[in-house]
Amino acid sequence: MVSIVWQIQSKEYRFLKLAIISFLVVLISFIPVRMAIAYIQSPQPQAILTLGSWLDREVFTAQFATKHPRLEIWVSSGTSPHISSPIFREFGIPENRVNLDYRAVDTVTNFTTLISDFKIRKIQHLYLITSDYHLHRAKAIATLILGSQGIIFTPISVPSHEPSESWFRILRDICRSLLWIFTGRTGASFHSQF
Predict the structure, then answer these.
(1) Taking the model in full, what pTM does it have?
(2) Above 60 in pLDDT, residue 3?
(3) Integer Cα distance of 97 and 47 in angstroms
(4) Domain extent for 185
């Protein structure tokens, strides 16, 4: 009798597990579809997003922006305005093109804090600028967070002499990105513990 009850519970557990996995797969599979639609609607980038806090990224962005004079620039949690603003002025970038945003506390929130701004402006395609060692993690996060919102990106790397980031950090932030997709929370409070 106990073995029959256990078999029934085991089958119910397997069915529930399969149902949850299937639900998650279907939910995540909408990301490539939304990205494909965004690419068809906006094959060329409409803005520049730089993941900040590194002076070389902002100098690179200012230089890059001179070749793309119609694109609005977003710097997420970059250097302070008294350092950043003169860099853009030096390259002749008008102040009204540059959005310095300091809400993000890490790479995941670099994206989540700006989603509403991009959606208000109907931005569906971004140049994503970050350091070469940081690019794998930034692309993984961007694919999930931006992609889930129908925004695609064209990555641009800034050369550095740093080693690539660990797979642990990439995997951790993929999990945090999925958490944001499903709950609207980033897990930023856990970030400092890892």
Answers:
(1) 0.85
(2) no
(3) 10
(4) 44-191
